[in-house]
Write a sequence for this structure.
């Protein structure tokens, strides 16, 4: 054991490893959930529809279905969490300092919250447009 | 501090972690699979945010959205859709392998799992690409 390494720093390293493990699990489970949701999203939006994309009225009709609305809102939440945890994992591989990683965490949390907020707002606004 | 996390850096050829990503010499299949997973992840993340931005066109009414739909049916966009589809199916099916192996499932069958799942992904990719161009 390195004598220069204090007990506190060892505990901090262990806590960081625990947190990385928990975040990895969240990313793995959100990824598995995305396999289903993204699969449904792609088939419903791009492979069933003639021409590969719905026109304006078709989109509104589609989103007015409460089940579709719920799945699409869930899709935004899960996709953003999965994507930003992936971004964090890549940044972590570049071996940033603890301070940089803390700043990155905050930026990703704020950016993720804003994106999820915007995505859900978009889904709600479209449902209201559909009447 | 993070010395235990360096999956893309070969200790025999030390270089910066970022540069090490692009050096394919002597890489094992799992490392290449990992690198492609990362590459597709970056592409899909960029696409996710672009997609949300494009969807905001719907709030401008039918003119904005329907003109985008016409543009999205052009050959160039369809080709980009095919590239996107490759990223989605590869990342999805290799991701299933990564999640399973990471959770301790099928550790010893990792190579077979890779060939099976990525093979299935490529079949879906070809079928999807044909549908993109013909539907």
């Amino acid at each position: 054991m390195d004598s220069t390494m204090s007990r506190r720093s060892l505990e901090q390293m262990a806590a960081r490893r625990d947190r990385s493990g928990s975040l990895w699990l969240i990313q793995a489970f959100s990824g598995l959930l995305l396999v289903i949701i993204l699969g449904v999203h792609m088939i419903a939006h791009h492979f069933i529809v003639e021409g590969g994309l719905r026109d304006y009225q078709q989109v509104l009709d589609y989103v007015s279905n409460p089940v579709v609305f719920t799945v699409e809102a869930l899709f935004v939440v899960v996709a953003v969490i999965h994507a930003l945890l992936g971004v964090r994992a890549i940044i972590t591989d570049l071996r940033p300092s603890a301070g940089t990683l803390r700043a990155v965490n905050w930026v990703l949390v704020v950016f993720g919250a804003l994106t999820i907020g915007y995505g859900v707002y978009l889904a709600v606004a479209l449902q209201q447009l559909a009447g | 501090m993070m010395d235990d996390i360096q999956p893309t850096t070969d200790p025999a050829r030390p270089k910066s972690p970022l540069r090490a990503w692009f050096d394919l010499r002597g890489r094992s299949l799992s490392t290449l699979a990992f690198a492609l997973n990362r590459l597709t992840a970056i592409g899909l993340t960029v696409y996710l945010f672009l997609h949300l931005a494009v969807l905001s066109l719907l709030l401008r009414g039918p003119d904005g959205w329907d003109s985008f739909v016409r543009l999205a049916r052009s050959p160039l966009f369809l080709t980009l859709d095919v590239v996107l589809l490759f990223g989605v199916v590869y990342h999805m099916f290799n991701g299933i392998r990564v999640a399973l192996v990471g959770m301790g499932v099928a550790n010893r069958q990792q190579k077979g799992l890779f060939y099976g799942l990525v093979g299935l992904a490529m079949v879906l990719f070809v079928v999807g690409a044909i549908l993109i161009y013909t539907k």
Q: What stands out?
A: Residues 75-102 of chain B form the longest helix (28 residues). The helical segments of chain B are 17-21, 29-55, 62-72, 75-102, 110-134. Confidence is low (pLDDT under 50) at residues 1-6 of chain B.
